[in-house]
Structure formats: structure tokens, C-alpha cells
Design a protein that fits this description.
Structural class: alpha+beta
Radius of gyration: 31 Å
Protein name: DUF3945 domain-containing protein
Shape: extended
């Protein structure tokens, strides 16, 4: 294997979360012509949930030609105290796209993630989740998919009364939700500002917003009408509301003045008439 080929494979695995040290592991196995499994190169542990996830790069799943060796994917296993058994899923790599390690952990935890993948040359953009009660022939868990067009996440985020959100804030929320993370933010619920958490529900077409203690929650869907009460609007929106209302009042006042002028002047005489109407006093 040439240095260029080794660099190519290293980049492929680094793109799915493997550390740079993967070069040595790849080199040791591939230089000997052996099917290589990269085990323990990426081990995640969460002290709060006692979750352990191990990532194994399956170099023997690749396609080889005279120029380079490209791995097709990696295998991820997640185990925690709350699971009856470990969950394992083989994750394919499609043209350097597909799931990254941070997405894979959320996927194996049962969360929704967003993925761009290639299927027979066609690019597919789906929100996806694993069905842990059913497996397919390959041994992977069956996936539940919702097309991106069927779940307009950005529009749903715009329905939530976040406190002074910027466009950059909304984009950051979008990226985190795409990975399957629960987003924390400040929003107005029931007339008060709360620290809330936001989760996706693509299968129901909803966005769930709730306080950490679950005492207050609300679901947003595309069928919702946006109705604001004045005391629920952020300060900048209150100013916009007042400015708009002032403009309406000025327009109405101008209209009233014009109508009053016409009444005081009286009706205009018709052409050719001798008697001119007197103005009303």
C-alpha cells in the first residue's frame, strides 16, 4: 500500500470520527494484507448514563482496485445500564456522507437524526430512527424514515417563541437537532420565559418544547396558527408591533381628516347646475 492510498483511507475514517492514530492501525493490518478491524480506536463513555459506545472500522468491508482501498463503513455498538442488551449497527459510508459518530450514538439511543445518503446513485435526505423491535436480513435494525420535505423543521422552529433569537441561533439549533441532540434554549411558554428543551418528532410532524421538569410542554405542528399576546412578545417584537400600530393609527387619522374636510365642504356642484350647494357649517 502506498502512502497516498493510506492517506486516502485515513481521511475516510477520520471523516466519521476516527482519531488521526487510525493511520498506525490501518498500516499494521493492511501492509500485511490482512482484513483489518479497528477496535477500540473510538470508545465513548458517559458517566451520567453509564453508556459505552465502541466504534469499529471494518476495512474488510471495502472495495479494492489497483489505485486505492476505500472502506464501506464502520460498526458501532452501544451499551448502557438501561439496556437489556447491547445495540449494534453497521453504518455505511456513501461518498463521504452518511452518519458521523455523534449521530450514530444518538441513533443507537433511539433518537431521530438527519442523514444525507446515496442509494443506487440517488441522493436521499431523510430523518431516520431505528426500530429496535425489528431487524433486516443484514442483521441491522430496521430504519424508520421521514423525508425532509415532509418535515419542515426550520419552519417549525420559527413557530416557537424563543427569546430574541437570531438567524444564527436558529441555524445552530437546526444543526444540533440534525445530529439528534436535545436543544436547550429560552422561550416563552404560558406567558413566562422558561429554559426549555426541544426535541424532534418527525413521525408525528411535530416539534416538542418542554421544561426540564416536564411540568410545562407544548407541541408545535405546521397546522398551528401563530397567535401572539402582547405580553408574550420579546421586547424587539413589541417595538415592531407598536411601530406598526402607530402607522396604522396615523393612516386612519389621515383618512378621518380627509372625510371631515369633505363633509365640511359639502357636496360638489354638478356640472351645468345654477344652484350651488352651500357648505355645511
Amino acid at each position: 500500500m502506498t502512502q497516498d492510498n493510506l492517506d486516502y483511507v485515513t481521511r475516510a475514517f477520520t471523516n466519521v470520527g476516527f482519531p488521526p492514530q487510525v493511520r498506525d492501525l490501518l498500516s499494521a493490518g493492511m501492509e500485511k494484507g490482512l482484513p483489518t478491524i479497528i477496535a477500540g480506536g473510538n470508545r465513548h463513555y458517559d458517566a451520567a448514563t453509564h453508556e459505552v459506545m465502541r466504534i469499529e472500522g471494518r476495512a474488510d468491508q471495502g472495495e479494492q482496485n489497483t489505485e486505492r482501498y476505500f472502506p464501506k463503513g464502520y460498526q458501532a455498538t452501544l451499551k448502557s445500564d438501561t439496556m437489556e442488551e447491547a445495540r449494534t449497527q453497521f453504518i455505511h459510508i456513501y461518498d463521504q456522507k452518511g452518519f458521523h459518530v455523534d449521530q450514530t450514538r444518538n441513533l443507537l439511543s433511539g433518537k431521530w437524526v438527519f442523514a444525507i445518503e446515496k442509494d443506487r446513485g440517488e441522493e436521499k435526505r431523510n430523518f431516520t430512527r431505528l426500530n429496535f423491535d425489528e431487524k433486516v436480513a443484514s442483521g441491522n435494525y430496521k430504519r424508520i424514515n421521514v423525508k425532509e420535505d415532509d418535515y419542515p423543521l426550520f419552519k417549525l422552529l420559527n413557530k416557537v417563541s424563543f427569546v430574541d433569537p437570531t438567524e444564527a441561533d436558529l441555524k445552530d439549533m437546526l444543526k444540533s437537532l440534525f445530529k439528534g441532540d436535545t436543544v436547550s434554549a429560552k422561550a416563552r411558554l404560558e406567558g413566562n420565559i422558561h429554559t426549555v428543551q426541544v426535541d424532534m418528532r418527525p413521525d408525528k410532524g411535530e416539534l416538542l418544547v418542554y421544561t426540564p421538569d416536564n411540568k410545562i410542554s407544548r407541541t408545535y405542528s405546521m397546522g398551528d396558527k401563530i397567535r401572539f399576546e402582547l405580553d408574550q412578545l420579546p421586547d424587539q417584537n413589541i417595538k415592531q408591533f407598536n411601530d406598526k400600530q402607530q402607522g396604522i393609527n396615523q393612516s386612519m387619522n389621515a383618512g378621518d381628516a380627509e372625510r371631515t374636510k369633505k363633509v365640511l365642504e359639502g357636496p360638489k356642484p354638478k356640472p351645468g347646475t345654477k344652484n350651488q350647494p352651500k357648505p355645511r357649517v
